[in-house]
Amino acid sequence: MDKTKVTALRKAKGWTQEDLAERAYITVRTIQRLEAGQEVSTETLSSVANALGVTITDLFEYIDTEEREIELMASSQEQQVQFSRRTSEATAIKLALFAVIFTLLSCGGLFVESRPEQTQDLFGVLWLFSLFIGISSGYYFYKIIVMNHLDAKYPKTLGVAYQKRPSKPREPIENVWQFLANYWWLIFPIGGFLSWLVPHLMGR
Predict the structure, then answer these.
(1) Do the beta carbons of residue 155 and residue 25 sit within 8 Å?
(2) CA-to-CA distance for 133 and 186, rounded, in angstroms?
(3) Which tens digit of pLDDT belongs to each residue from 145-198?
(4) Which distant-in-sequence residues (6+ apart) come within 8 Å of 78 by Cβ?
(5) What is the Cα–Cα distance from 83 to 78, expressed in whole angstroms?
(6) Whole-number Å distance between alpha carbons of 70 and 103
(7) 3-state secondary structure of 60
(8) 10 and 23 in contact (C-beta within 8 Å)?
(9) pTM for the full model?
């Protein structure tokens, strides 16, 4: 019988069996079977490992048979490959989504600038409203549509929305360049709006 470390990993996070089951998209009974050392599918192991932020092989202290160990090692390797590809694709989609929103808002800013002065205030307010609608729509599109797409395309990464891979602690921001690097996604749209608003107000 395989000996797992799931119980220890779960308790280290302060989770109950119900908490882990919810994060891994499986039943509490399955968690109980896994913690008891009973065999479960590799798909289930992938979900549990993703929820705990570890690899599949990290779930086990001892694997009973060599065939099972080879199977789990191969599944763990595929899990890591899928996670790497998912991360790369998610980053590319985020950048493309930001580029589309930024381009549309920039075109909107140019449109506002070309309007007669007496109507620029109205169109400026509409542009600001569009800024928040664009950010909200982009957030919804990514969190709902893109995440569902990535879950289906990379099934061994199911559950990463709850628990991301361990990352290095964020270093304190010491200068303006580090601040810009961390918050460029927020600074650009706000900066674009201010670059239109300030000259407009000063020109009055």
Answers:
(1) no
(2) 14
(3) 998 999 899 988 877 644 444 444 456 667 766 766 666 656 666 666 666 666
(4) 156
(5) 8
(6) 50
(7) strand
(8) no
(9) 0.63
